[in-house]
Fold this protein.
Amino acid sequence: MSKIIKLKKGFDINLAGKAVHKIADSVHPETFAIKPTDFVGMKRPKLLVNEGDNVKAGTPILFDKMQENVMYCSPVSGEIVEVKRGAKRKILEVKILADKTIEYESFQSYSPSDITGLSREEAQAQMMKSGVWPNIIQRPFGVVANENDSPKAIHISAFDTHPLAADIAFTLQGEEDAFKTGINILKKFTEGKIHLNHNLNAEVSKVFASVEGIEHNKFSGPHPAGNVGVQIHHLDPINKGDIVWTVTPYGVAQIGKLFSQGKYDASRLVAVCGSEVKTPQYYKTYSGGAINKLVEGNIKQDHVRYISGNVLTGEKIEKDGYLSFYANSLTVIPEGDHSEFLGWIMPKKNVLSFHRAWGLFSFLNGKDKEYVLDSNTNGEDRAFVQTGTFEKVTPMDIYPAFLLKAILSEDFDNVEALGIYEVIEEDLALCEFVDVSKHDVQHMVREGIELIQNG
Amino acid sequence: MKFLHNLLEKQKPMFEKGGKLEKFYYLFEAGETFMFSPPSTAKNKGVQVRDAIDLKRMMMTVVIAMIPCLIFGIFNTGYQHHVAIGEATTFLSLENFLFGARWVLPIVLVSYAAGGIIEAIFAVVRKHPINEGFLVTGMLIPLIVPATIPLWQVALATVFGVLVGKEIFGGTGMNILNVAMTSRAFLYFAYPSQISGAVWTQLADKTPVDGFTGATALAVAYDTSTAGGNVVSALGDTFSFSNLFMGLVPGSIGETSTLWVLVGALILIATGVGSWKIIVSVFGGAFIMGAIFNAAGINPFMDMPAHYHLVMGGLAFGAVFMATDPVSAAHTETGKWIYGILIGMLSVLIRVVNPAYPEGIMLAVLLMNVFAPLIDFYVIQANKKRRLARATV
């Protein structure tokens, strides 16, 4: 049975600089990078290539010693120009200078009827060596899926409610067949259901509409209604001992193309957005692209922060940095390292607040007002004060403040009992945004997860 | 402003790690962030933008909500004085204000100074930031004491409240009891003669007119339970319902006027800083308990119309400013209803049944502060059970 679920709790952060539905195809990043740090839980990355090697799109670059069969592959063909290492020779970035025309490693391709007959083992082997496997994320813990698991269900969120998020339907236009093939492959991995979750308040894109044999659910409500973790909580919650997989629609299409075309196709549309971007729009490139070409001459001022991903869950990168493996957007906002005289009490209208405390009048602006927010923390670290707002932005039957306190006190039993299996960082990112005490909630969530994983 | 900021920034290295005045870093930090919002930016990972609120602003919202009560309290202190000595003028006169300010403002200053010093000492010794929570406590304490209180008692009570109510538990956010109520309870038990009886009107050595008793409405009402008679007629014109509601009666500085407390409540609820659930449920609980007593009707006090309870004494002030303290209240939404209703019921129970304490809200809030974690425990337990019930292993 497909479900319709209306959520009320949450908060939409409406930022200026939304990418318009236009694809710029004149600008192309020249270098690409694989960053082991993009893969949460990767413990001991082992490099398979050296500087100077030539690779094709789909050539394995590295793998995690803890999961030796899953390859992390080059998104493009070209030359390995640099392996950037940090302290203790930790691999930070493997940089690849892309060829003008991309050559692909060739993998087995299948006709639609062959795919039906394909066994899980064959499909899995091809996915693991070709670079598409890291698209599959396991819940609990939000790490790359373990190939030996059979998940109880697979969840795909077909919409993204994060601030300035790329429009998933737009980025996948024309990928109907790839998406369908991907779903057919994923069906081999679970005896349970595949849930594809749509936005109730928008038309279902034709990329998704015709997919059969899966559950089509609809969600409405403010962010985080589009978070797959929230959706899982309402459809089929994760209990202790359960394994559930999540895949992004992009990942599904990529898996589909691996089988229908026999190649690891890392091309993707990336939204370049944010208040400081002159023309916010989409760019056609590959995963892990360098951002320097995308921002050159396209930024309104110099004092900005580049974010791989969105402003809630993204990561700050440098001007010569690279987008993360999973990122489909680059957000550029003003850097907020400025002080304000009596900034803690002055009335403000143009700053956004979930609260309506003294002098914060953003609630008077209406829902459609677009804000320019900078990276200032708007306050300093303070003791944990439970104001009850965490619960108001978390549309789940979870008490975030109590969960976080249990994590801080390393109280294993309570961390587990209060629902750590059901959340990853992004699900509580809004708590971090609204927190009056300015704590790193997402970091705490990850600590809690590690507590349970290593416990 | 730029100049001032640069000046501050120049001093900063002295207070940072390795600097000469490293010990006083948090004092410097408190001063600096008070003047200028800090230039700190989001970390590399995690949210890149933050809500415009911070703890300072949240606490200031509460202080702002109390200002109507403070101003009313200043006028009322003067007004009660002039009524008592038989020179009553209109309420909003300069005379009333000046007289009130003369007695009220020193209490506010002493409370802030004493508490501020303790905060500062603890910030230095315990190496934690100075907490803005004190902005609220420092204002609450003056509003719940009579204008006649000796200043040294204000200082002592504040020190006791901050130390025993908060710092020994680890500071803001970790205290079990409401700090201001702890101070009030300390005064009540340590110096009962200065905070009960006929202390509510600042006479300033003038002789009161004949018939002046200085009693509060609660005391008058309580006397009827032994002396007999009808409470409403015993309260008479002085303590008519409208006078009680407006607050034109003797009592603690800020808590006599239900009207201005409700204005504060409106600010707290509109800004979302105070929980409307707690405020509503305290009033509801008090009314229910009053109605139960009406039904029992054993003595005249029990027969007093239940709505009188809502405007007498400090119940309204306690409901709005004390019970809603986010740290010491129940933290779960379900818990807040239970917590509030019990505070309301207990307040009236203590008022009517206990002969020793004419005012019940103080003890009710403190008692429920202690029970709030227990209420939360059961609400959370229910959440855990729901989660466990659907698990198979």
In short: The first strand of chain B starts at residue 36 and ends at 37. Chain B touches chain A through 63 residues (CB under 8 Å). The two ends of chain B are 63 Å apart (CA to CA). The mean pLDDT of chain B is 88.
